[in-house]
Known about the structure:
The chain is about 65% helix and about 0% strand. It is an all-alpha fold.
Amino acid sequence: MIEERKVNKTFGQIIRQARKDKGFSQRELAKQIGVNYTYLSKLENDHAGTPPSEDVIHKLALHLHLNAKELIYLAGRMTEDDARYFEEFLKYNYQQMPALFRKIRENTQNPNLVNQWLQDEKPTTEE
């Protein structure tokens, strides 16, 4: 679960704060994770254009002692397990997708309702 202090922060804000808390400069951290420091700066300022790769996210999590799964979600990506689940879900429910998207779009005025759906519908795995 995302910690209380992280609830309203972006991916970039979280990694910037963690980097500073660890005492790394942008150049030091960028070198450790194998990216250019200008790219790290763009990530920290939420101006990278596209989410970082999972590899970069995992390296950030490792070096900054952050939860990789939380960072993946904050960056706008899905975990590999989520992607597999989503593909299976679509395969078996593709005919209902237009209705689902319409329902979500119609209820954007009530975000609490959509959040409630998301909390109520926990994915289950069949064995």
